[in-house]
Amino acid sequence: MLIAAAVCPCPPLLVPEVAAGAAGELDALRAACLDAVGVLAAARPERLIVVGPAECDGRGPHPQGTPGSFGGFGVDLDVRFGGWGEAGAGAEASERTLPPSLAVAAWLLERARWQAAPVEGLGVGEPLAAERCREVGRELAAQAERVALLVMGDGSACRTLKAPGYLDDRAAAFDAEVARALGAADIAALAELDEELAAELKAAGRAPLQVLAGAGEGAALKGELRYEGAPYGVGYFVAMWS
Fold first, then answer.
1. What CDD domains does the record point to (predicted)?
2. pTM of the predicted structure, to 2 decimals
């Protein structure tokens, strides 16, 4: 069952080498993400499953050992999914590569020196229907007695005129409801996020958050919202459930 979860945003800019001169602007966000990973480690899971949005070629499972790269963002930086310390024992190379959201997670876990449990990933298609997302979450939570989730995903991308999706007056309210639901561990609210509205607002975290909603059913976890903001016009959240 699910014993702990963390939600973090997944922009490649979270990686300082990618952000370059603007790296300092996201220091508070990075610190909050590392704190969230620490909560997952403290829960002593048997398995950590990372869930993030992915395009067609990145969807599906990514076993421990799967490599990733930020070369597509102009940075010569490679990462590997799992394989840190004893928790990475037995990790094997994979023919697949991590989608960007999971590559950011791999960087974050490596930065946190994750050794608490084996790690695997799941790339989720953004159009995946809400009910199927929840079914996937239930399946993930049933994989072991002590499962932790690291959910990577952004809110709306329409918070300002310079945002990737331009300004949409509905974006702030959408993000506010997501932030509230995360802070309250409100599974029902996450499950009921409007799929069509999320797509219009380019909210890349909708499907992963609804996977979390399914995984959290019956777990009775308490939530804490550690970060909420919209740098660059995109809604970012960091939350911890334990």
1. ED_3B_N_AMMECR1 (cd07951)
2. 0.94
